[in-house]
Amino acid sequence: MTKKNRDLRDEIERLMSGHRFTDVLCAGAELGVFDLIAEKPRTAVQVANALGTDRRGTEILLNALVAIDLLTKRKDMFYMSKLSREYLDPASSSYMGNMVNHVINMRRAWLELPTAIRTGKPIPKPDTSEQSVRERTRHFIRAMADVGRDAARRVAGSIDLSNVRRVLDVGGGPGIFLFEMIRANPEITGNVFDMPATLETTREFIEESGMSDRVGTVEGDFTKDALGRGYDLVFMSSIIHIYSPAVNKRIIKKGYTALNPGGRLVVRDFVLDPNKTSPVQAALFSVNMLVNTDCGASYTEKEIKSWMSAAGFKKMKRVEIPSHSSLIIGTKPGK
Ligand SMILES: C[S@@+](CC[C@H](N)C(=O)[O-])C[C@H]1O[C@@H](n2cnc3c(N)ncnc32)[C@H](O)[C@@H]1O
C-alpha cells in the first residue's frame, strides 16, 4: 500500500470510529466513573462495586478510557489523567461535565440524522413532560456556562467597554458573558433577557457570582417581545444559529431599537466561510441545529452583516475569538 493510500485508509478509519471516543467518554460520565475516581483512585473491581456495574464491562470501559487519555493506570489502579482532572473533575474550575451531559442528550437526536434530512424537521425530544423540559433546560444552561467561561473572558477583553454603562445580554442563558463585561468594567450594569424557564437557572448563576446588585433579568420571547430601550451594548451570543434568516433579521432589528445612539450590537457565533463548508466546527454545528431546531443553522459573515445593515447598523467589523467563534459588531449611528 502506498503512503498516500495508507493516509487515506487512516482517514476513513478515523471517520468511521470517531463515535467510539465519544461513546466511551459519555458512558464514563453517565455512569459516574469520573466523579468516583476524582474522589480517589480505584481498581476496576472497586469501581464496579461502587457503581453496581458488571466487573468485566467496567474493566473494559476503564481500560478504554486509559487508551484515550481520560484515565491513567498503574498496576491495577485507575487514576484521573491530566485531561480528566482539568475538565471532568467536579472540583475543577474548568469543569465540562455539564457539557458532556448535554452531548449525551444531543447524541440521541444525532443518531436519527437521516430522518432529519429526509423530513427537514428536528428529531422530537424523548420526554416532553414539564419536569423533563425543566431538567434539560437546567443542564443545558449549565453546559453553556461550562463551554462559555473561557470565551466570555476573551470577549470581554476584545471589546472596548470603556464607555459602556448598560448592557443587554439577549438569550444570555447563564449570563456569564455579561458577568465578565462587568468584571472588566465595574461601572456596567445590565439585564439578561431570556425565557422564564431558563431564567430560573440564570438567577442561580447571578447569585453564585455575587452579581445580584449589577445584573437583572427580563422575561420574554425575543421572537415576539420587544427588548426594551436605553442600552449601550446589546449582546447576542449563540442565538442566531437557533433561528431562520427571516427571524434573525427581526431579532437584530429589535437589538437596534434597544440601543442608544452610538451603541453597539455584538453578535457572537460560529461563522461559516462563504462556501459554507468550513470551518469544520461551524459546518458540523449546522447539522446539530438541523436535528435540534425547526430552522436553525450556522451562517456566513455576509448573511449576518446583511441583517445588521438592513436594521441600520454601520461600521460593521468582525473580530475573531479563539474557540471557534467570531464577533460581528455593528454601531447604531447618531452620536
Ligand atoms: C445556545 S444558548 C446561549 C446562551 C448564552 N447566550 C451563551 O452564549 O452562553 C441560547 C439561549 O437563548 C435562549 N433563547 C432561545 N430562544 C429564545 C427566545 N425566543 N426568547 C428568549 N430567549 C431565548 C435560551 O433559553 C438560551 O438561554
Which helices and strands occur, and which strands form pairs?
Blueprint lengths: L2 H29 L1 H7 L2 E2 H8 L3 H13 L3 E4 L2 E4 L1 H6 L9 H14 L2 H7 L10 H29 L7 E5 L5 H9 L4 E6 L1 H13 L6 E5 L11 E7 L7 H14 E11 L1 E2 L7 H13 L6 E2 H11 L2 E8 L3 E7 L4
Parallel strand pairs: 4-5, 4-7, 5-6, 7-8, 9-10
Antiparallel strand pairs: 1-3, 2-3, 8-12, 11-12
Bound molecules: S-adenosylmethionine.
The site of S-adenosylmethionine (SAM) has 16 residues, from helix 8.
Characterize this entry briefly.
The chain is an alpha/beta fold and 335 residues long.
How would you portray this structure in words?
With 335 residues, the protein is α/β, with parallel strands linked by helices. It folds into 2 domains: 93 residues, Winged helix-like DNA-binding domain superfamily/Winged helix DNA-binding domain (Arc Repressor Mutant, subunit A, Orthogonal Bundle); 218 residues, Rossmann fold, CATH 3.40.50. Helix content is 52%, strand content 19%. It has 13 helices and 12 strands. A 7-stranded mixed β-sheet has the order 6-5-4-7-8-12-11, with helices on both faces. It has a 3-stranded antiparallel β-sheet with strand order 1-3-2. α3 crosses α4. It is globular and about 70 Å long. The chain starts with a helix and ends with a strand. The model has no long low-confidence stretch (mean pLDDT 96). The chain binds S-adenosylmethionine. S-adenosylmethionine binds next to α8.
